[in-house]
Write a structure and sequence with these properties.
- The protein is of the alpha/beta class.
- Among the domains are: about 80 residues, no CATH class; about 70 residues, no CATH class; about 230 residues, Pectate Lyase C-like, CATH 2.160.20.
- It has 11 helices and 34 strands.
């Protein structure tokens, strides 16, 4: 990672590091607003320090953080803080847990209100009322887990729609398309589907293009309901569409024969309500969505050497990426950027075949090896993205430490198969993620998790529940792991870390099939139960026939 990318602003560092330590509330006040700390607790020494000496050390840590100009100094200051012992640490921990619980409950209550306003037909009225009631009576994070999962599924149904899995868009069959390859063919006021559009609806125009200039013109002049059909052949360059469709009249950009049209650059969907389907991309640029409600489906992407293969931009909400095949890629496969508080929300990434990663060039950042990445950043981030990553097959990536990488909150990773990789599914940092029914085989760690309030259900693969180092890897806490198969190690630390570590804590393991190892000194409050009342879908090892361009 480049030095510039390692450095954080002071506020970002404090938010990242101090939310997960024993005296978080008071230390935050001491660092940011000492008078407020005095007013809230009477005296910081009475709440967070055994003596004036400890209070003085807190102030010294504050000074170190303020004056730090490099990441090593910041880490050293945070490590000093982590090891500062207090006489009422248990009470402070409970207070922090209560604050975290109320914060998450409040977020879910806001989500219920938002979904009730969106559910204009009352389709999910009963489920949303039950969620509101459950939130009112919830006592702990475990009570919130099933509510959060149900709300996320309702959110997808209301925004993405009940699209049947694997359903591509059929080519137009109502008469011959209009052939228009030159700019002087536009506007297309008379180029409508034979018989004209139904009364009261927008025109639907089928436009066949067979040259790069014709494709650019069609994209520049696209209107809601247009179907831009690209004839077989090779098209050079990168193409961008900035026009938008509508919920009832999407713009379809489609290869006339699936896999018969090759584009030597990339494609950018800068508008909304657009579907890109059936192409082969073999150039150095990416396929990207910068708009909302877009779909990238049934494309073959080979190479993508300069950037990743498929990217969802910072403002690209409610996108679906499905049934694509990505192979021989040098940088990332499918990736979702985050920057500060921004990032693509409610993405649905399913039934893709991501395979055969090749080495990233030496001139590139070596932290660009992921097959699927949900959120970015080497240091702790808090972005909730609400993505669903499901039923993808990822294999043959011996380079990445995070083959499916989570660096964001409130995501679901379900039913994926990950084979022959260096490291499988990694929850690097991000609370309230759900990892369920995945089949993972790697050369090192199948599933690795850090951060808190995670749910791991019915996975087949070894699981590593990590301690923290205070910066890039927060400690795992408030984890529920039920019905998993394989070895579980609680309190895992990387070999290149140096003490002190932040122990993994409040880990509940239920109905586990396999060895459980609890590391002394790097874990605490681990509960094991032989059974569970939780349910999950059965694990299924996916094959190439289940995913990709030609899957059902």
């Amino acid at each position: 990672m480049k030095e510039g990318a390692k450095l954080l602003s002071l506020n970002s560092l404090l938010r990242a590091g101090l939310l997960v330590v024993a005296c978080a509330a008071v230390m935050w006040m001491v660092v940011v607003d000492p008078p407020s700390a005095q007013s809230v607790v009477g005296s910081p020494a009475g709440m967070c320090a055994d003596s004036a000496t400890n209070l003085a050390e807190l102030q010294d840590i504050r000074s170190s953080l303020v004056s730090a100009t490099d990441i090593e100094t910041m880490q050293a200051a945070l490590h000093r803080f982590y090891t500062l012992q207090t006489h009422n640490q248990t009470d402070i921990m409970r207070a922090r847990e209560a604050l975290d619980f109320e914060r998450e409950r409040s977020q879910l209550q806001e989500q219920v209100s938002r979904l009730q306003a969106k559910d204009t037909n009352g389709t999910y009225a009963q489920e949303l009322a039950a969620a509101a009631s459950g939130l009112a009576s919830a006592h702990n994070h475990a009570d919130l887990i099933p509510i959060r999962e149900n709300l996320n599924l309702i959110e997808f149904a209301l925004t993405v729609g009940n699209v049947s899995v694997g359903s591509g868009t059929p080519p137009p069959s109502s008469g011959a398309p209009v052939v228009c390859d030159e700019p002087d063919c536009y506007p297309w006021s008379s180029a409508q589907t034979p018989g004209g559009p139904p009364s009261g609806t927008s025109p639907i125009r089928d436009v066949l293009v067979s040259s790069a200039s014709g494709l650019r013109a069609a994209l520049q002049n696209a209107q809601p309901g247009d179907r831009i059909i690209v004839a077989p052949g090779a098209y050079s360059g990168t193409f961008t569409i900035s026009r938008s469709g509508r919920p009832d009249a999407r713009i379809l950009i489609q290869s006339q024969t699936r896999g018969g049209t090759t584009i030597g650059g990339g494609f950018v969907l800068a508008g909304d309500y657009i579907t890109l389907e059936g192409f082969v991309f073999n150039g150095n640029d990416e396929v990207a969505s910068e708009g909302d409600y877009n779909r990238i489906t049934r494309n073959l992407i080979v190479g993508a050497q300069r950037r990743g293969a498929i990217r969802l931009g910072l403002d690209a909400d409610y996108n679906r990426v499905d049934h694509n095949e990505i192979r021989n890629y040098q940088v990332q496969g499918i990736y979702m950027r985050t920057d500060g508080g921004k990032g693509p929300l409610y993405a649905w990434i399913d039934h893709n075949y991501v395979r055969d990663k090749v080495p990233t060039p030496a001139s590139y950042d070596n932290n660009l090896e992921e097959s699927i990445q949900v959120g970015m950043g080497g240091l702790i981030t808090e972005n909730p993205l609400y993505a669903v990553i499901e039923y993808n097959l990822v294999e043959n990536n011996p380079y990445s430490d995070d083959t499916i990488s989570l660096k964001s909150q409130q995501n679901i990773v379900r039913g994926n198969t990950v084979l022959n990789v260096k490291s499988g599914i990694v929850n690097r940092h991000g609370d309230s993620n759900t990892i369920v029914a995945n089949y993972v085989r790697s050369s090192s760690r199948d599933i690795t998790v850090h951060s808190g309030f995670l749910t791991l259900l019915g996975n087949d693969g070894n699981i590593y529940i990590g301690a923290g180092n205070g910066t890039t890897h927060p400690h795992a806490h408030d984890i529920v792991a039920a019905g998993n198969k394989g070895r579980i190690e609680v309190g895992f630390v990387f070999s290149n870390w140096t003490p002190p570590y932040i122990p993994a804590e409040r880990i509940t393991i239920e109905a586990h099939e396999g060895e459980v190892v609890v590391r002394e000194g790097t874990s605490r409050q681990v509960i094991q139960r032989p059974s569970t009342n939780r349910t999950w879908p059965a694990v299924r090892k996916l094959t190439p026939a289940d995913v990709g361009v030609n899957a059902p």
